[in-house]
Design goal:
This protein is an alpha+beta fold. The protein has 2 domains: about 10-170, 2-Layer Sandwich (Gyrase A, domain 2), CATH 3.30.1360; about 220-285, Elongation Factor Tu (Ef-tu), domain 3 (Beta Barrel), CATH 2.40.30. It is built from 4 helices and 16 strands. It has helices spanning about 20-25, 75-85, 160-170, 205-215, and strands at about 10-15, 40-45, 50-55, 65-70, 95, 100-105, 120-125, 130, 140-145, 155, 220-225, 235-240, 245-255, 260-265, 275, 280-285. The protein has a 6-stranded antiparallel barrel with strand order 11-14-13-12-15-16. The model is unreliable at about 1-5 (pLDDT under 50).
Length: about 290
């Protein structure tokens, strides 16, 4: 069995100013994160480009002032380094080696105790926190300390299976290869409850808001099937004819031995023949409508 926590990791923030500090940095409303509800967030640069995006959750038995970031390991350093520049003025501390691990897996629905119909729902177990990606899916994160036992009946998912679940959920998480390239809307974060347009100022907010109100989102994230058994790396170019029209965000091998991926594409290119290298691409559905006229 592979160690399922290698691909995702946890960062902890603690201190009386934690929420207030994050509220001025992140795309979504930190006050919405409770012991039963995690959320999707991004940290942007002043130009509104996503440096890192992640889930934010309250660890079990924590007060209001403690939160966990859950994200791809590859993006942890960018997130930590960027927040570290600003956090010095706050009564809050960021801890990279915080002892929390993110395990990916499955659990029988009857034993989950998670509320129905709620994306990013979570529930505290005896030794950790269970977090579900989407109400309609079965894949879960189990956030726990190093020595904590896994929940009874836990089935670990390897990295490919977990990536596939994220891709099918239409959640585009950036990595070091794709950091600093996309507005949150290009990653469909506004369609995934990852952006609040009412919470007030945060880094990059003016540009993110302007893109919404002026209808400037000319690129969106799409799910595609690649006719190849080798998943292209994040940052790979998607082409039509031989012109680059987009960028791979995530890719994984599916059950049939082909690759599914999320890529940010110019909306006008989705009518044409798309390919990566010599391999052709076919558009697949996402669990939410991607409307170019938003």
């Amino acid at each position: 069995m592979s160690h399922s926590h290698a691909s995702w990791t946890c960062l902890r923030i603690v201190g009386p100013d934690s929420r207030q500090f994050l509220q001025g940095q992140l795309t979504n409303d930190v006050e919405q994160v409770t012991s039963g509800q995690a959320g999707l967030f991004a940290l942007c640069n002043p130009k509104g480009r996503v440096l890192a995006n992640f889930l934010l959750a309250v660890p079990p038995d924590a007060g209001r002032d403690e939160l966990l970031f859950v994200l791809p390991s590859d993006a942890q350093e960018i997130l930590a380094n960027t927040l570290a520049k600003y956090i010095v003025f706050s009564k809050a501390e960021l801890q990279s080696s915080c002892g929390w691990l993110a395990h990916t897996g499955l659990l029988e629905r009857s034993t989950q105790n998670l509320p129905a119909g709620q994306d990013f729902a979570c529930v505290a177990g005896q030794d950790g926190l269970l977090l579900r990606l989407q109400a309609t899916r079965d894949e879960l994160l189990w956030l726990a300390h190093q020595a904590s036992p896994q929940p009874p009946g836990w089935q670990a998912l390897d990295e490919q299976a977990w990536l596939l679940a994220i891709i099918r959920s239409g959640l585009g998480f950036v990595s070091s290869a794709t950091s600093d390239q996309f507005l949150p809307q290009m990653l469909n974060m506004d369609l995934n409850k990852g952006v609040s347009f009412t919470k007030g100022c945060y880094t990059g907010q003016e540009i993110v808001a302007r893109a919404k109100y002026r209808g400037q989102v000319k690129r969106r994230m799409y799910r595609l099937l690649l006719d190849s058994a080798i998943p292209p790396a994040p940052g790979s170019a998607v082409q039509t004819n031989s012109k680059s029209v987009g960028t791979v965000v995530l890719s994984a091998k599916n059950e049939a031995g082909q690759c599914e991926l999320l890529a940010v594409l110019s909306n006008s290119s989705t009518d044409g023949a798309l390919h990566i290298g010599q391999n052709s691409l076919t558009l697949l559905d996402l669990p939410y409508p991607v409307n170019e006229q938003l």
